[in-house]
Amino acid sequence: MLMEEKLVVKELEQGKELANQLMNSLNNPSSSSKESNEVLISEILHCFENTIAMMMNLDKKALKRSHERSDQSNKKRRMLEKKKTEKVNICIGSGQEGTLLDDGHCWRKYGQKDIHGSKNPRGYYRCTHKFTRGCLAVKQVQKSDTNPLCYEVKYVESHTCDITQSATKHSLPVSEEAEQKLHDAKHSDDTVQHMKPEELMLSIEDLDYKKDIFRTFSFSNHEMDDDFLEWKDLMANLSPTTSESGITNEFHVSPTDDSCFSSLETLLGSTPDLSWM
DNA sequence: CGTATTTGACCTTG
DNA sequence: CAAGGTCAAATACG
After folding, report:
1. Measured from the CB, is A211 under 7 Å from any atom of strand B?
2. What residue ranges of chain A are covered by domains with CATH 2.20.25.80?
3. For strand C, which residues in window 129-188 of chain A come within 7 Å by CB?
4. What is the pLDDT of residues A89-144, one digit of tens each?
5. Which of A5, A44, A118, A243 maximizes the CB count within 10 A of its CB?
6. In the predicted model, is pLDDT for residue A190 greater than 90?
7. Proximity of residue A29 CB to strand C below 7 A
8. Which GO terms describe its molecular function (predicted)?
């Protein structure tokens, strides 16, 4: 069984367990509150959301594989499928090493490679939510040969998980520090004004990428992956939207509403295993 | 014990 | 065939 399939089974088992809890709760109204039932319902819905997202990701992969097998002349396809990549050169001042910062996303290292003609190896990172949310964001980080304080960061695909994780724990490479500066600089003019020139020097090669970074940090993705939008629409349809049920009217979700998760988050409060929301 | 990183093997591409 | 990219088992870490 594939890793993703195991996660799907795990998620469904959790959903089953939660449904059982809800059933017990409904059978014993005296020992349960309306609020606890609402939390259970939300968690069950959350399991569905996760499972569907994972299945869509699996389906996408399977389709891709079958196409690759059947399509003999797929050169044009490959040209069209070429992944969106953005390159960023980041230089940091000497006094900043050792400070743990993040770029608002959780990255997980999945490989490192010595690059022909380069002194420093290249690190390969993918989004932590690759399997749980189907986020395809990937980045490559390589220390510059000429300037040890400079890093070449290549982003492949943008995040579809739409999550910022600045308050969570991180184990990031040094280069992440510079990236945080990059994002901070974009996010706040004050930051730029107060930053000494020797502390931060950024070189962005692509203007579109600047926009992308800002979009990520302002919590609004306006150019999201088609599949993700499709998934969101599906979620919106699955989630109760009427106020008649009484229980569920607190998490009304419209298909065009970017904050479809935040309403659930509000309802669920600090439920530990929903912290990613 | 669960999660993240390391690293050699394997796959893909030119 | 070489170089870059990814996978996954082993290992480290909190």
Report:
1. no
2. 85-217
3. 138, 140, 156
4. 777 654 333 333 356 778 999 999 999 998 899 999 998 888 777 788 899 999 88
5. A44
6. no
7. no
8. DNA-binding transcription factor activity; sequence-specific DNA binding
